[in-house]
Design a protein that fits this description.
The chain is mainly α. The protein contains three helices and no strands.
């Protein structure tokens, strides 16, 4: 019972894995650069929420619009809140 050696990762898979690792490193650096700045961190989270809302939610246009308005409203409140400047 001998088994043939199998290729663990094809060239295409290796390139995809390399891109994933590069992305993870860049993302980690961005997070590290903003983690001590609550305003920047909050901004990044809201931007990600906006992107996900536009691209990934499977809801109708009206619901997306309502969610986008709620997100923008909350984001504006946090930007204008004096408390958000210190937390």
């Amino acid at each position: 019972m001998t088994s043939e050696p199998q290729e663990i990762v094809s060239g295409k898979s290796l390139a995809a894995k390399s891109s994933e690792v590069d992305f993870a490193i860049v993302l980690s650096r961005v997070i590290a650069s903003i983690e001590n700045d609550p305003a920047q961190l909050r901004s990044a989270v809201y931007e990600l929420a906006r992107i996900k809302l536009r691209t990934e939610l499977s809801i109708n246009v009206s619901e997306k619009r309502d969610l986008a308005l709620a997100l923008e409203s909350r984001s504006s409140v946090l930007r204008l809140s004096p408390r958000s400047m210190t937390t």
